[in-house]
Write a structure and sequence with these properties.
This protein has a two-stranded antiparallel sheet with strand order 1-2. It has one domain. The protein is built from nine helices and eight strands. The longest helix is centred in the N-terminal third of the chain and has 23 residues. Helix 1 runs antiparallel to helix 2. The radius of gyration is 21 Å and the shape is globular. With 268 residues, the protein is mostly helical.
Length: 268
């Protein structure tokens, strides 16, 4: 190979008697990034940092990061449920918190993938592209021992997730999104990219009708979250009858579209 991405030969760093596991360190960095971004967004919405720290403590415990739970569907779901309970008990809006945390969750998922690079795991199919990821023979998936470079799916997801964080922040800044619409978009964006990533991966997985289980999960969640966003944002959470008259109050109709910030009419 003229060019390729090297992999660390070890996932640990020895600092005297201390052994630092880089996978765990990257998860901590990911969580710190999520907390920082969410905290800034929540405070800008009139909230306080104390609630963010309480949600983080309980949410991280549900993620079980010491078991690598940040990348597991069930861990993400359980962490969000636990966080929602904490927010609800505090008297704050769960939907507004969901929108506040959405970009931070995507940031954490992207940064957390760097830990997979240190562990030489969850890479894609063999490739001879200049950015192919070199994998030591001890870490190669059974049946692929003859190949040395593979698709760097960790890098693809890192770049994609960080890009989508920027898109979410731009959307939230530019338009008035009805909560928890931004969280729905986070799910849509993440699962869209994850579906195509799953098509590249070769690590052992359950298959249904020729697709990896996580590909099916991504596809289903993408459809559901996108449908919810359209229904919630453009139809006000209701399905209107086409035969309703024009004499109805506009407020009863619900928002027809996302309203660009700065274009709200006086009094609205």
């Amino acid at each position: 190979m003229i060019a390729s991405i090297p992999s660390p030969h070890t996932g640990t760093i020895d600092i005297g008697p201390l052994v630092l596991h880089m996978y765990g360190l990257m998860l901590l960095v990911a969580i710190a990034g999520c907390v920082a971004l969410t905290g800034v967004r929540w405070v800008n919405r009139g909230g306080d940092w104390d609630l963010i720290f309480r949600v983080a403590v309980w949410g991280v415990a549900a993620f079980e990061v010491w078991k690598g739970g940040l990348g597991v569907w069930g861990g993400i779901f359980l962490g969000c449920v636990v966080g929602a309970i904490v927010v609800k008990r505090s008297g704050e809006s769960v939907t507004k918190m969901a929108d506040a945390v959405a970009p931070g969750l995507l940031l954490a998922q992207g940064v957390g993938r760097i830990g997979n690079w240190f562990n030489q795991e969850l890479y894609g199919k063999p490739t001879d592209l200049p950015w192919g990821l070199k994998i030591d023979i001890d870490h190669r998936v059974q049946g692929y021992e003859q190949f040395s470079t593979f698709q760097p799916t960790f890098l693809y997801e890192l770049i994609y997730d960080l890009s989508m964080v920027g898109v979410l922040l731009l959307i939230d800044w530019r338009w008035r999104i009805r909560a928890p619409g931004l969280f729905a978009l986070y799910v849509s964006f993440y699962t869209f990219g994850r579906f195509f990533e799953e098509l590249l991966r070769i690590d052992p997985a359950h298959h249904i009708a020729g697709l990896r289980l996580n590909a099916w999960v991504s596809l289903i969640l993408f459809v559901l979250s996108t449908a919810f966003f359209i229904w919630w944002q453009f139809f006000g959470g209701k399905f209107k009858s086409w035969r309703r008259g024009g004499s109805e109050e506009e407020g009863d109709r619900g928002p027809k579209m996302a309203i660009p910030r700065g274009r709200v009419r006086p009094g609205n």
